[in-house]
Write a structure and sequence with these properties.
Elements (H helix, E strand, L loop, with lengths): L1 H19 L5 H22 L7 H21 L1
Length: 76
C-alpha cells in the first residue's frame, strides 16, 4: 500500500513540475520541490519518536546540503 501511495505522489509531483515549467523558472521549481518535500516529510516526524544524528551523520548531512547549494549556484 505504501508503494502505491508513493507512486501516486511521485506521479503528481511530475505532473505539477511539468505544468510549472511553463510559467516558473527552474530555480523556483527546485525551491518549491524542496520546500514542500521538507514539509510533507516532516508531518510523519511529528507523530513518531525523533532520532538525533551522531557526529558522523551530521557531517554527512552538512556535506549533502553543501552539494545542493553548489548545484543551485551553478543554475544561476
Amino acid at each position: 500500500m505504501i508503494g502505491l501511495i508513493g507512486g501516486a505522489l511521485a506521479a503528481g509531483a511530475k505532473v505539477a513540475i511539468r505544468k510549472m515549467s511553463d510559467t516558473e523558472p527552474t530555480a523556483h521549481i527546485v525551491f518549491y520541490f524542496a520546500l514542500f518535500g521538507a514539509l510533507f516529510s516532516g508531518i510523519p516526524m511529528l507523530t513518531n519518536e525523533t532520532y538525533s544524528p551522531n557526529n558522523q551523520e551530521w557531517l554527512l548531512l552538512i556535506g549533502m546540503s553543501d552539494q545542493r547549494i553548489m548545484y543551485l549556484s551553478v543554475l544561476r
